């Protein structure tokens, strides 16, 4: 078959002609307008697919002022296996049928966060932005809020101005993890925390300390490494502490990389996980279902987080009240795969 030329490309008019409806009906059906009957929408979409129709993005932007693009700013998240894959899977599912396209902007710290956002906002490269790794006084949240530019963050801030976010119940994770170990006999528990630059450190610490105060157990905060340290640094910090006297017999790791590093350190010291040291790991990939000896874990479902972020951003773009666009994901016992 000869390749279609520019003039031969199917248009909404050619779809309308074949479907026996108006061009306006085609336009609304392609935008998934619920005012068009579901069977008519499906028939028009089938014809559009059959003809190989693709919308003219430039014309759409001139007509509506929208790019139909959502931009995800994605840092490495080395402490979480598969963060990008899982979050993108969920976002993609949340954008299905919306007409929005996802553009991923890698963020390896080489460019200033503010420059990335300014470029997107001032050049109108997207209709909304998604990002993660929020800080207590996050300048990205302040900038986008002041610019009235739609966004949803993965994580909360401590700013007075409300903003749209999806977060995980890190308080609940740390609290539940601590109680599990205490109920199994741990009388001195420890936790590895993120650096103070990230908001969820405070949520983890609050949950941990609430369990400590309620039960009266001894506790420690792991020193010499944070959740963002390399696996080698985490292994060294835990090895050095657990080689000394009066070591904790319960340990909370808020990520799979830190969990593996701790498991290696404990076993290298010839201590037995779940006997000498009880552990609870936050896992996102299901990896710790396969480790032996098996240790305790609690899931954070990143695909669901991505889905919620996309859903809330679509509502934000449609001017939903910001206070209605805040979701804290509860802890769960199994992944949603």
Automatic annotation (TrEMBL):
Any one GO molecular function term = DNA-binding transcription factor activity
HTH lacI-type domain location, by residue?
A: 10-64
Against InterPro entries, the record matches this protein to: HTH_LacI (IPR000843), Lambda_DNA-bd_dom_sf (IPR010982), Peripla_BP/Lac1_sug-bd_dom (IPR001761), Peripla_BP_I (IPR028082)
Offer one Pfam family short name for this entry. Answer: LacI
Q: Which domain of life is it from?
A: Bacteria
Arranged from A to Z, the UniProt key words for this protein are: DNA-binding, Transcription, Transcription regulation
Record's PANTHER family? HTH-TYPE TRANSCRIPTIONAL REGULATOR GALS (PTHR30146:SF109), LACI-RELATED TRANSCRIPTIONAL REPRESSOR (PTHR30146)
The name of this protein is: Raffinose operon repressor
Q: Which organism is it from?
A: Cognatishimia activa
Q: Which gene encodes it?
A: rafR_1
């Amino acid at each position: 078959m000869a390749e279609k030329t520019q003039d031969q490309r199917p248009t909404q008019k050619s779809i309308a002609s074949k479907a026996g409806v108006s061009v306006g009906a085609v336009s609304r059906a392609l935008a998934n307008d619920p005012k068009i009957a579901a069977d008519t929408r499906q028939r028009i979409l089938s014809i559009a697919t059959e003809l190989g129709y693709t919308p003219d993005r430039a014309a759409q932007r001139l007509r509506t002022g929208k790019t139909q693009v959502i931009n995800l700013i994605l840092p490495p998240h080395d402490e979480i296996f598969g963060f990008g894959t899982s979050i993108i899977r969920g976002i993609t599912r949340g954008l299905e049928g919306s007409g929005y396209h996802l553009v991923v902007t890698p963020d390896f710290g080489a460019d200033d966060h503010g420059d990335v956002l300014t470029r997107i906002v001032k050049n109108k490269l997207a209709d909304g932005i998604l990002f993660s790794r929020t800080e207590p006084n996050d300048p990205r949240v302040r900038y986008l809020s002041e610019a009235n530019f739609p966004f949803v963050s993965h994580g909360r801030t401590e700013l007075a101005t409300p903003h749209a976010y999806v977060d995980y119940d890190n308080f609940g994770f740390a609290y539940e993890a601590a109680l599990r170990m205490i109920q199994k006999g741990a009388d001195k528990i420890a936790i590895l925390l993120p650096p103070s630059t990230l908001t969820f450190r405070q949520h983890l610490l609050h949950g941990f300390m609430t369990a400590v105060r309620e039960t009266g157990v001894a506790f420690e905060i792991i020193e010499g490494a944070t959740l963002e340290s390399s696996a080698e640094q985490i292994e060294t910090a835990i090895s050095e502490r657990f080689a000394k006297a009066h070591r904790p017999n319960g340990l909370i790791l808020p990520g799979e990389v830190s969990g593996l590093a701790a498991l290696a350190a404990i076993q290298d010291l010839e201590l037995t996980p779940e006997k000498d040291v009880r552990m609870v790991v936050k896992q996102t990939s299901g990896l710790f279902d396969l480790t032996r000896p098996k240790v305790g874990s609690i899931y954070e479902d990143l695909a669901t987080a991505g889905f919620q972020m996309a859903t809330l951003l679509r509502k934000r773009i449609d001017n939903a009240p910001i206070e209605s666009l805040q979701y804290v994901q509860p802890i769960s016992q199994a992944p949603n795969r």
